[in-house]
């Protein structure tokens, strides 16, 4: 099967406008007859569900949480990018496009990213109209701040709660449509399979997490906005429930998985403190606007700090290594995430880490406090300082924060074409669940932008192009053999989990998987380690199906059973990530292969790897089939990414 | 350290529940309260018993899903923090700790510590929004907002919808939650066209869901993890009253 990205012809600047002008439409009377399923209610899912309902479609929305407002988009702190150029600092759609492509280390599609940049301004308008309380200047106009990988101020924010406020804006629009009867909402439902009939997505199988019942739902199209898969690493900044199951089931039903090895390790998280830890907490990248990252110049000083014999304040200015400012003078502390993370790892591997485990560096607000005063710094970062203090029991206004990189976001995801459709007709993927816009590394404040762009402004146009041919399709009865088979398969799998009755908990397996992934497929990877990891994951999968212990019953509220399904899928995905990382014999963005570097900087191989790796599922444990989508750079000249 | 727990166990909404004793040992004061429950649950699972059901997700204090009533207080002893942001250093070795679900008529128990808070969603669906369809917005800077008002709106918008206010209130009132949304939108120019209708509809839905009324006790404000202020309730009452006086339709 050949893959077609369906990128429109024409000049980069005109592609999206021309697409919209020629895409097919569905008239209002027909929209009322068409049902659309949306899985996930984060920024992408909630905005898509609300917008499609506003247009007149009948929408069914699903989330596993107890309310659509809880989706993990809510935890995004720092901000959302938009090419408004309100600061008059030289920003433009082209610059946002260029920064995003370069930030992604030239591994994203030009046409998609340009479209993203061009609708970015509409998102700010829409959110403001909804009553999202963005930060403002005294004149009453919107304020901006800077984020990594850019030299302009284009990030809009609502204190340290930008994701929360944008999500609540989308959630309220969704609730409005629920109230009007245009959306039927299914809280505490987890999609456990997609139903494909004659090559087209026609519905889903979902488990009601309260009653445990396996339920069937029909849709003329299915939209997956189910987020990323960072929890494959066990420890990440994702919510506890974030999982890959919806995307993975789609993959097993024929949707190709794009660039699974591209994961983002975020440089500013609170370091791991013990084995009991269940998740890692992010400290917003916006802190790097004012915080300076450093470690001691000497290993001796670092050791003294680790052992509690010295404190940060005891290290004199000249004995500190502000390594980001030293290595990347033009971007300094605001260099992109992958680069900042690798630099932290390098400093710690060099024996200069400053927390007892050795894996931590300082993020220091001392200079900012001297320059701006305590009150300004406090006001700028809202909740972040108290949150840090609460978790670590240290006051960052008095002593530097301690931070270390942690898994945060996955650039990879379901492969989609320009219309956001996967390789299964009528099955779409939005937001973090797709692979499309961030290449090999995502810039800060771009996830919110992409999720909302997909949901508000892209999919509501592109889906009509498909649905216009579906207006004569009647609702398919839920006892259709494809529904029967999928529902039966889901039920049997869950019964299997319950019947194994082994000795290890699901959590034990998740932890083991996380360790393998972090060690061999984390911040630095090499062929030997990846080969070993594939073997280890295969063994873990076999062990899981022999020795997992899942208590409780099928037809009951049973979180352990939910988790078993998710972890079983993570194990299969982990293997694919390792295969992808092994295939990509180059370093780019978040994918750093130790064999391919130039003194610690990622060394791309454009001659051989200027493509999207789209993997086709062929069976559990079997070698997947690689399909290549060549990336064509017609407007931007490929170059070595430099922030120096 | 070691904690002795008395945890509310209830199979489902239709059966009676009771406090069950557990003790968890080898704890670290730097663990979060929920990580301690993880440890307990892992022990229960390995014994073949059903783990304690509890709601949680982001574990960063922002999603609003976690909801435990700990030693008689919503989200436990720490001020302005959700359950997930509560750390064991707030307890002493050997303490006995009571853990219960939110208790309110409008939040029926699903299982153990899990409750059904969908009433909050229905209140938002009744009017907690600005009616603007995608694509209808003007340029964001065409509508300047006084910075002071924007800040106050943001204070109110910080509500995470966890329901601690309801759990803490002897009347089971949801007025802090409802008023936070009404206030946020009442303080912004975008919220003005629907201001009256919003207050009427949200309050009506709130009553329909079985929440109680405010009698100025202030437990909600004291226990709110996001420090939402009682003054929001005053603003809501004012808006509701004003809207009731001028309303011809409701």
Summarize the structure in words:
The complex is a heterodimer of chains A (644) and B (250). With 644 residues, chain A is of the alpha+beta class. Among the domains of chain A are: 265-407, Succinate dehydrogenase/fumarate reductase flavoprotein, catalytic domain (Flavocytochrome C3, Chain A, domain 1); 498-611, Fumarate reductase/succinate dehydrogenase flavoprotein-like, C-terminal domain (Methane Monooxygenase Hydroxylase, Chain G, domain 1, Up-down Bundle). Chain A has 19 helices and 23 strands. In chain A, a hairpin with a 5-residue loop joins strand 7 and strand 8. In chain A, helix 11 (366-372) crosses helix 12 (374-381). The longest helix of chain A has 25 residues, at 559-583. Chain A is globular, with a radius of gyration of 24 Å. The model of chain A has no long low-confidence stretch (mean pLDDT 96). Chain B folds into 2 domains: 3-111, Ubiquitin-like (UB roll) (Roll), CATH 3.10.20; 118-246, Fumarate Reductase Iron-sulfur Protein, Chain B, domain 2. Chain B is built from 8 helices and 7 strands, in the order E-E-H-E-E-E-E-E-H-H-H-H-H-H-H. A 5-stranded mixed β-sheet of chain B has the order 2-1-5-3-4. In chain B, a hairpin with an 8-residue loop joins strand 1 (3-9) and strand 2. In chain B, helix 5 (175-186) runs antiparallel to helix 6. Chain B starts with a strand and ends with a helix. Chains A and B meet through helix 3, helix 5, helix 6, helix 13 and helix 14 of A and helix 1, helix 2 and helix 3 of B.
């Amino acid at each position: 099967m050949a893959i077609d990205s369906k990128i429109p012809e024409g000049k980069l600047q005109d592609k999206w406008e021309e697409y919209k002008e020629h895409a097919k439409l569905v008239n209002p009377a027909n929209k009322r007859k068409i049902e659309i399923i949306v899985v996930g209610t984060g920024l992408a899912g909630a905005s898509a569900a609300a917008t499609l309902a506003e247009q007149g479609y009948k929408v069914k929305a699903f989330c596993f949480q107890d309310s659509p407002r809880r989706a993990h988009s809510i935890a995004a702190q720092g901000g959302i990018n938009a090419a408004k150029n309100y600061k008059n600092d030289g920003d433009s759609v082209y610059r946002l496009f260029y920064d995003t492509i370069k930030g992604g280390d030239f591994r994203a599609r030009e046409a998609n990213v340009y479209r993203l940049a061009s609708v970015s301004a509409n998102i700010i308008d829409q959110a403001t109209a909804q009553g999202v309380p963005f930060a403002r200047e005294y004149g009453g106009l919107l304020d901006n701040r800077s984020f990594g990988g850019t030299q302009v101020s284009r990030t809009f924010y609502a204190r340290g709660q930008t994701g929360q406020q944008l999500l609540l804006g989308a959630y309220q629009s969704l609730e409005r449509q629920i109230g009007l009867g245009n959306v039927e909402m299914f809280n505490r439902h987890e999609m456990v399979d997609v139903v494909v009939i004659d090559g087209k997505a026609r519905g889903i199988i979902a488990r009601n997490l309260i009653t445990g019942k396996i339920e069937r739902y029909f849709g003329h199209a299915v939209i997956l906005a189910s987020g990323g898969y960072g929890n494959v690493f066990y420890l990440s900044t994702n919510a506890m429930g974030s999982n890959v199951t919806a995307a993975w089931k789609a993959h097993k039903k024929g949707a190709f998985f794009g660039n699974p090895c591209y994961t983002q390790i975020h440089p500013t998280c609170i370091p791991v403190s013990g084995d009991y830890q269940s998740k890692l907490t992010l400290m917003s990248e916006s802190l790097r606007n004012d915080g300076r990252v450093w470690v001691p110049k000497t290993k001796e000083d670092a050791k003294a700090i680790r052992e509690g014999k010295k404190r940060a304040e005891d290290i004199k200015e000249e004995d500190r290594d502000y390594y980001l400012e030293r290595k990347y003078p033009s971007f300094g502390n605001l260099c992109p995430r992958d680069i900042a993370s690798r630099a932290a790892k390098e400093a710690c591997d060099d024996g200069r880490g400053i927390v007892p485990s050795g894996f931590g560096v300082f993020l220091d607000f001392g200079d900012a406090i001297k320059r701006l005063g305590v009150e300004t710094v406090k006001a700028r970062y809202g909740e972040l300082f108290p949150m840090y203090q609460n978790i670590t029991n240290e006051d960052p206004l008095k002593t530097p924060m301690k931070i270390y990189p942690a898994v945060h976001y996955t650039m990879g995801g379901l492969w989609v074409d320009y219309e956001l459709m996967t390789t299964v007709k009528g099955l779409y993927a939005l937001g973090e669940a797709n692979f499309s816009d961030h290449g090999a590394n995502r810039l800060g404040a771009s996830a919110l932008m992409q999720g909302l762009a997909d949901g508000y402004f892209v999919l509501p146009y592109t889906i009509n192009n498909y649905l216009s041919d579906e207006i004569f399709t009647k609702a398919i009865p839920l006892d259709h053999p494809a529904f029967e088979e999928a529902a039966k398969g889901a039920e049997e799998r869950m019964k299997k989990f319950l019947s194994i009755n082994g000795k290890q908990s699901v959590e034990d397996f998740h932890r083991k998987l996380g360790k393998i992934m972090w060690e061999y497929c984390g911040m630095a990877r090499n062929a030997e380690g990846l080969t070993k990891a594939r073997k280890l994951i295969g063994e873990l999968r076999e062990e899981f199906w022999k020795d997992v212990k899942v208590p409780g019953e099928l037809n009951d509220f049973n979180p352990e059973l939910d988790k078993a399904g998710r972890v079983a899928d993570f194990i299969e995905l982990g293997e694919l990530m390792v295969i992808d990382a092994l295939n990509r014999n180059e370093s780019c963005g978040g994918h750093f292969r130790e064999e391919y570097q130039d003194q610690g900087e990622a060394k791309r191989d454009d001659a051989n790897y200027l493509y999207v790796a789209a993997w086709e599922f062929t069976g559990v444990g079997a070698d997947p089939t690689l399909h290549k989508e060549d990336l064509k750079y017609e407007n931007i000249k490929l170059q070595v990414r430099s922030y120096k | 350290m070691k904690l002795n727990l008395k945890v509310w166990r209830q199979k489902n909404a239709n059966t009676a529940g009771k406090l069950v004793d557990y003790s968890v040992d080898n704890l670290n004061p730097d663990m979060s309260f929920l990580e301690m429950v993880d440890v307990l649950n892992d022990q229960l699972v390995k014994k073949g018993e059903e783990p304690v059901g509890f709601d949680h997700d982001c574990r960063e204090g922002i999603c609003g899903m976690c909801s435990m009533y700990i030693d008689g207080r919503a989200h436990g002893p720490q001020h302005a923090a959700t359950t997930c942001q509560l750390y064991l250093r707030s307890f002493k070795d050997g303490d006995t700790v009571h853990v219960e679900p939110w208790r309110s008529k409008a939040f029926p128990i699903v299982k153990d510590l899990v409750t059904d808070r969908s009433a909050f969603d229905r209140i938002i669906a009744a009017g907690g929004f600005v009616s603007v369809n995608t694509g209808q917005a003007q340029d964001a800077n065409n509508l300047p907002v006084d910075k002071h008002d924007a800040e106050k709106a943001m204070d109110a918008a910080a509500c995470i919808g966890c329901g601690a206010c309801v759990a803490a209130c002897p009347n089971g009132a949801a007025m802090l939650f409802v008023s936070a949304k009404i206030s946020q939108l009442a303080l912004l120019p975008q919220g003005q066209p629907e201001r009256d209708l919003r207050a009427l509809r949200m309050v009506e839905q709130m009553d329909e869901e079985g929440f109680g009324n405010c009698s100025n006790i202030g437990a909600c404000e004291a226990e709110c993890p996001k420090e939402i202020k009682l003054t929001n309730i005053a603003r809501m009452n004012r808006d509701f009253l004003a809207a009731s006086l001028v309303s011809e339709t409701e």
